[in-house]
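Practice problem 4.
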């Protein structure tokens, strides 16, 4: 008899249940314990062997996770089709030794608008990259999940990609514990007054003119650029979308946020270069 088999009669008279300590009693390794489901967004994928694929997903239940879909590269694979990039899905999984495997997929949203617009798709890819690079495996974050799901839906619906991208950068950093300081100089604690200032990526906020010399790399911010950032922080996306911003301030806001994101990420985000190249070629229509 191997140690896994249950003896016909226990070698002691005391009943094991319900007195056994659940913390030390080994759980039976039944199939049911190995199955679970979660809602998720598909962030990236790569091929494995002849027929399989590994997907990076951001899931409600366990945050970022890599999963394997056997046979997903075959033309007739329904799982492969449902796990298209940037799709929002419910994925049914089984626990595997290294990677959990896909049993089935239900589509929640396919974001068809992302397939029609290059800029919307490039923006969505950049946001997915941020989440993939800047979140930890098995660390769920419902705020980040909701933010990503909502932003992808709005991008697909044709809402201005530039504003959505800036709002996502700001809100994603905030949800990850890196709220930018906009009202008080992070170096000397003086209140920020209404004048041209600068954003210090290193200090994580707007620094006053006196402290500016301490960070020569700080990004200049006009009064309008600072108002835009404060609206983002105070009033959220809906109000932000109704604002108009002059071109110079627009570039300042973009540089401050993208520099800040990459500073926190401690590496350049590859898809940001693609997004920039597209913006230079064909600027988004101004609101
Ligand atoms: Zn200061």
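Answer key:
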């Amino acid at each position: 008899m191997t140690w896994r088999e249950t003896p016909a009669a226990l070698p002691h008279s005391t009943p094991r249940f319900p007195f056994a300590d659940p913390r030390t009693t080994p759980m039976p390794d039944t199939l049911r314990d190995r199955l679970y489901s979660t809602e998720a967004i598909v962030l990236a994928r790569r091929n494995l062997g002849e027929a399989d694929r590994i997907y990076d997903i951001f899931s409600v239940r366990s945050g970022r996770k890599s999963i394997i879909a056997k046979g997903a590269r075959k033309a007739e694979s329904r799982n492969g089709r449902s796990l298209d990039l940037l799709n929002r899905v419910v994925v049914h999984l089984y626990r595997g030794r290294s990677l959990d495997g896909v049993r089935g997929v239900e589509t929640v949203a396919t974001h068809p608008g992302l397939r029609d617009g290059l800029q919307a798709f490039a923006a969505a890819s950049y946001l997915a990259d941020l989440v993939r690079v800047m979140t930890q495996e098995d660390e769920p974050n419902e705020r980040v999940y909701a933010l990503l799901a909502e932003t992808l839906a709005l991008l697909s619906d044709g809402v201005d990609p530039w504003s959505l991208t800036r709002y996502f950068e700001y809100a994603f950093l905030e949800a990850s514990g890196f709220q930018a300081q906009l009202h008080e100089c992070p170096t000397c604690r003086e209140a920020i007054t209404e004048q041209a200032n600068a954003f210090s990526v290193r200090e994580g906020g707007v620094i006053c003119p006196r402290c500016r010399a301490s960070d020569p790399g700080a990004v200049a911010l006009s009064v309008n650029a600072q108002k835009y950032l404060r609206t983002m922080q105070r009033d959220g996306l809906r109000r932000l979308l109704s604002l108009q911003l002059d071109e110079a301030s627009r570039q300042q806001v973009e540089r401050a946020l993208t520099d800040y994101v990459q500073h926190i990420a401690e590496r350049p985000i590859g898809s940001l270069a693609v997004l920039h190249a597209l913006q230079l070629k064909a600027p988004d229509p101004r609101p």
